Model the fold of this input.
Amino acid sequence: MNVPFIDLKFRYQEEREEILGCVETVLSQGHLILTEEVDLFEREAASYIGTKHVVSLNSGTDALMIGLWALGIKKGDEVITTPISFVASTGAIAHIGARPVYVDVSDDQNIDVSKIEEAITPNTKAIMPVHWGGRMANMERIVKIARKHKLFVVEDAAQAMGAYYNKKHGGTFGDIAGFSAHPLKNLNALGDAGFLATDNEEIAKKIKIYRSHGLESRDNCVMYGVNSRLDSLHAEILRMRLKKLNSVVQKRRKNVSLYREHIKAAEIFIPKESDNEYHSYVMFIVQAERRDALKEYLGKHGVETLVYYGTPLHLQQAASIYGYKKGDFPVAEKQCKKVLALPHHQNLTDEQILYVSEIINNFYR
Ligand SMILES: Cc1ncc(COP(=O)(O)O)c(C=O)c1O
Done:
């Protein structure tokens, strides 16, 4: 049996009529940028998430970077974050000239909240947790620490559409949250796309101007900005897919329950889901003994897997400017040797899940 990691071609066939309908809606108007679809998407996404504002942008990376900028974070400031994430989390901090200050992670791969306070210095301006894989970080404690030390909270909610903590949606805890709508996310566009959520009207207004060259109107540039507008076609696609998001997340959660039930090997660690979280499972990452050999074995049996990621952020070549070294964040470093993302998407069949589980169990027998 072949089990691809993800199957975007299949998804296209399934949604073909709806996608072509979106193309028709947008292209038939003769306008492609900042049309009504963009406004509608922003309102609908804000209502889904539960924030007052959503500002759509080109990518999740832009949402984080522009969001940090809008909070006034700048060169010389420090932002506390985690070494377990996609490089964009740190990239956003680095691009505005601030310094990423890492805090090690817990077993569940999210920032270890018990270690945050010891990383705070007079230069710390924000805490940026990452809801890794769709699992919410412990926002109750993070917000408490941030309030005590008068720090901003910037949620890297790139993977958090459809994820909840204490029944509150990801992205509603911080001052701002950056979401990605990259094709591999639960809510995804036809290419790169992203958005920022906030309750702060001033910030939302500032970013709306900044994302469009700093133009307040066609001939009135009030600051130099960037071009980071969500395309109208993407907005219409996202509107269509937002309506299906809950069922996508439910299916993904069902997949994971089945994986949990059928993977019996003691060499596989799957972090538990605690009572106060609702994981959206953008990715299903296990921690495996002899990971590389298991990956190869799965590949030989037609199962495509990916390592997310083999190198923690503090040991990336780009991070050498910050002076971190091997051993600084031992939990993250150990996990990077074990993590393996199994095939996981809403079109995965039960038979495929049972097959992958069986191959894993056989490998360790
Ligand atoms: C945790 C995390 N942060 C940031 C990003 C960046 O989002 P984008 O790819 O939309 O720029 C991603 C994207 O994969 C991500 O997974």
